Amino acid sequence: MIFTAPWVLLALLALPVLWWLLRATPPAPRAQNFPAIRLLAALRPREETPARTPWWLLALRLAASALIILGVAGPVSGGGGGALPGAGPVLLVIDNGWASGPDWAARQQAASAVLDRAERDRRRVALLATASGIEAPHATAIMPVDMLRPMLAALVPMPWGDDRAGAARAVAGVATGPGVYIGDGVAGPDDAAFAAALRRRGPVIELRGALPARLLSSLAGPAGLTAVLTQTPVAAPRQEEIYAETGDGRVLARTPLSVPAGAATAQARIDLPSEFRNQLSALRLAQAPGAGSVVLLDEAARRRPVGLLNAGSGDTPLLGTNYYLERALAPVAEVRRGDAATLLARPLSVLVAADRTLAGPEGDKIEAWVRQGGMLIRFAGPSIGSADDLLPEKLLEGDRQLGGAMSWSQPEHLAAFPPGPFAGLALPRDVTVGRQVLAEPSAALPENTWAALADGTPLVTAARHGAGEIVLFHVTANADWSNLPLSGLFVDMLTRLVQRASGVEVAGDARPLPPAQSLDGAGILGPPPSGARALGASELATAAVSPIHPPGYYGLEHDRHAFNLGGHTALHAAGPMSGAAELSLAAAPQAVRLGPGLIGLALALLCADLLLTLRLRGLLRPAVAGLILLLAAVHPAAAQTAESPALGTHLAYVVTGDATVDGVSKSGLSGLSDYVNDHTAAVMAAPLPVAPGKDDLSFYPLIYWPITAGAKASPAFIAALNDYMRQGGIVLIDTRGGGADGAFAPGTDAALRRVSEGLDVPTLAPLTSAHVLARAFYLLTEFPGRYEGATVWVQQDQDRTNDSVSPVIIGANDWAAAWATDEDGKPLFATIPGGARQRTLAWRFGVNLVMYALTGNYKGDQVHVPAILERLGQ
Amino acid sequence: MIPKLSRAGGRPAAHHGLLGAAEAAGARLPALLVAAERVAATVAQGVHGRRRVGVGDTFWQYRPFVQGDAASRIDWRRSGRSDRVYVRDMEWEAAQTVCLWRDASPSMAWRSVKGLPAKRERAELLLLALAALLFRAGEQVRVVGQGRVYSGRQGLARLADTLERGADSDGLPDAVRVPAQAQVVLAGDFLAPLAEIKACLARFAALPVRLHLVQVLDPAEFELPYEGRVRFMGLERDGEALIPRVSGVRAAYAEALQAQIDGVRALAAAAGFGVTLHRTDHAPETALLALFMALDATAARR
């Protein structure tokens, strides 16, 4: 044990004086009422032996005083192993590149322990950080430890790699002896020079962290977005989690990633429907704050949906019009097939209509969509007519034949692309056009022409229509009129068009992209640092991350490109530094302060002394002392009451066996019970798990049944539910898929069909706002849960024997996740597409459900119709 | 064997506690009455004969008829036995008054241990038990210094009320409003200086009354069961005494207390009054019996 203020120990010399004082002072006398005081006062006491404090009380007080003196002297223990090597000033080198971000706190703590040790040995220290910024790394001057501590606290990890060469030069310039190096485990090209420079100064200790250096990157493919984790290999397998986040920080998906022992890379696919995938702006590694754990996503990772209108024979292989279009569009966009109504029901970027007239209601719908900002790509063909007005230019009747048996001319080649969306595309020499439709010459034709043939005839024309665009290829989408669809140029042209539709300008290559936002060392986006410079568009793929090009977003507002560490940095594990003693970070010498503990013990002794003195004076009432002891010793015993379901109104949820789903059901129903208790006169108790077939269902007004993909239902289960519904219960079946196709919970629709085979489900109809359920407490027109848009089904006919209450309600909006709250009352799951209104509507739907279950057709009574009509009328 | 009385309840309880205890004390004392009837015949009978002619029930004398007597008073049986006409006279009988007093000063409202009653409570218990006996025997009771007379069953309740509510006063009674020929009982601790007690008793001796003292003391006042260095504080603002070692003064204190008790006894004997000494940890029946006997002895002597 070492004392940081040893001169305080001189106060121990005063202890004998204290002992003499305490012994000489008599204790305070006991006070006592006495009526015969007159007789006592007249007495003269015979002997005057002074009263003394008992010896054990003296010893207690002396011990307390001694402990206080020892505590104030600041004893510090620990610090046996890990002595600093050599003698003289120490150089502390810290790697603060991107790889040190995740465990930066542990590194700072180890550095601070080294400083403590140097302070104890009374040695001065100089500090060197290897990743500093625009200027080269330089070491601080050699200074006492307490002047260096603020500088250590001000160090932060940087989002670029370490500059070992600069660090080697800085080491050469500082006059210290031994060195302590806290490395981040990533190898660089100048490691040997750096190690040699350190060794030249004196003995070196290297401190290594236990976590591997990890780098996250992403791959966007036709199958989806894949996260790729690169790390320095470690011996134990690791589990990581990847969060897919939107621009405002909402987490849309959590994907687990397992890295086997000794592996250097691992991959995981991010599972999201494409609308939500397009909202993502970053992938982040959980529990690893740093620039290397974040991948920023830009347009290249997004797949805009493209719709192909059905053509009659469009799917015929090699001959059909849609065949080539699908293959050309598949790598760059998500392709959907259908007719106009289906395609336009969901948000769409591009609609491709090959060889069709667009007229009638379909044409009106498409025109309205184009006016709102969609891009319509049309291909000419035999059936396209000049009477069609969804065309960029008026077309001449008939078409033009080039080459062929009955003509003098040869099929034409393409001319170089004028400035426009196709500028810069390489032109293959074998693309020819044999037949095309012609556009009527007009004043606007030259500027609407995006591609032309060698003789100047337009091949691709386009015009704005409202907020959107209509593009017309003057050839067919198959190989009938030209071999353009057979070439790679077709793919490039369609890619450019799709990118143009999503708002990305693809212009010339060499323009500079200024930095718009940058990641800092902790992985947070913010304004770019002062030394950041613009990056050329062509250098995006090849540049290295450095202080002048920090990772982040580059470009102007409509042309954002992401520049990540992930795809631009090679990760190699650094071997142990040669010639250095190696220690792990956690074994850095730590000092344990004993002072506060000793002072606390002394205070406890003084409290005991106070109680004893009161007792000696007779002032301590035994009742009060007993009460104090009782308060100190009592443990609040929680009474375990097994709640009988008949004692209150409980909602119930079917136990599915999947712990996650059951947990969500429970927290969702308890959140709903709390909301109902707060907002209505109903009093709901905590929800209970129930297993139909085993438990008695008759206590519960409403049973929530979430369907999982592997759901199974035994005959006893189905019989119990049938019985329950016949007796007047309500079952709420939730397939949790959400949206039009249940994309969030694949397989649950099939599972529902499977498990409800024996269930007495009556004829169902969609739930509308005219139904009692939509009016039972709140007036609702939509019934969202965590997701929205799925239809909710209730019984079609009114069954008077069941009080006109629907025994089953089927939906897919995952209501339990919308109602789930944690113990602070904060919601656990984000609503998709989001917004406070969706969550409020989900709560209201839940309240309506509970009221419907508790009151039946009360709100369906005709008595209330005038009041309801009046409110609806307002 | 006299059955054990229940101790009287604490001060704050309704006077029913005291009354009930007193009544219980009285209810269990027919044995006491029977035992004491031999010497207390006049008390058990009720009204006392005043050995004069007057209104009453007991025959006193025959006297010859004179002009002016009512003719219905002639006793024909006696007159028929002789030639003259005689009138029967009865003895004058009147109830006797007992005056009670208890010390209500703050030094009486003290107990040494929780289990013992305060001295004032014990004194009041004794007085009320005595009053219960007296009411049963038909006597009247007054409180020294007040003019109100209590008798009968209701009187016991009212007397208990008055005693309990009595304001704190000085340690010794004033000899005012004491009817002649009354029996006075004073209950207190009589720890005042002997000169003051002598002056008080002298005032009572000047009156034609019979007096009895009951000295109620706490056992702690006898034994001084304290140890070590104790600061004793008086209850009536009469100062403090810091005793460095109580065990050293215990013997001297016992002597002083005995001197005080003997002094009170001597003063009372000099005036012809009796003293009963009572410790609160002893049973109250013993004091009650002694008090009873003392009252009858006083009555019998006169």
How would you concisely characterize the structure shown here?
By secondary structure, chain A is of the alpha/beta class.
Largest protein interface, residues of each chain: A-B, 24 and 34 residues
Q: Portion of residues in helices of chain A? A: 25-40%
Helix percent band of chain B: 40-55%
Mean pLDDT of chain B: 78
Rg over C-alpha atoms of chain A, rounded to the nearest angstrom: 40 Å
User: How many strands in all of chain B?
Assistant: 11
Low-confidence stretches of chain B: 1-14, 28-46
Number of helices of chain B: 10
C-alpha termini separation of chain B: 31 Å
Task: Please give the order of strands in the largest beta sheet of chain A.
Answer: 16-15-17-18-25-24-23
Taking the alpha carbons of the first and last residues of chain A, their distance comes to 81 Å
Strands in their spatial order, largest beta sheet of chain B: 6-5-4-7-8-11
Q: Counting H and I runs of at least 4 residues, what is the number of helices of chain A?
A: 21
Can you walk me through this structure?
The complex is a heterodimer of chains A (874) and B (302). By secondary structure, chain A is of the alpha/beta class. Helix content of chain A is 27%, strand content 21%. In chain A, the strands form 11 sheets. Chain A has a 7-stranded mixed sheet with strand order 16-15-17-18-25-24-23. In chain A, a hairpin with a 5-residue loop joins strand 23 (449-452) and strand 24 (458-465). In chain A, helix 6 (164-172) runs parallel beside helix 7 (191-201). The longest helix of chain A has 23 residues, at 595-617. Chain B has helices at 15-27, 30-37, 41-45, 76-81, 119-136, 152-165, 194-206, 219-223, 246-271, 284-301; strands spanning 48-53, 59-64, 86-94, 97-102, 140-143, 149-150, 183-188, 210-217, 230-233, 240-243, 274-279. Chain B is elongated, with a radius of gyration of 23 Å. Chain B starts with 14 loop residues before the first helix and ends with a helix. The chains are: A alpha/beta (874), B alpha/beta (302). Chains A and B meet through strand 2 and helix 2 of A and strand 9, strand 10 and helix 9 of B. Strand 2 (30-33) of chain A pairs parallel with strand 9 of chain B, so a sheet runs across the interface.
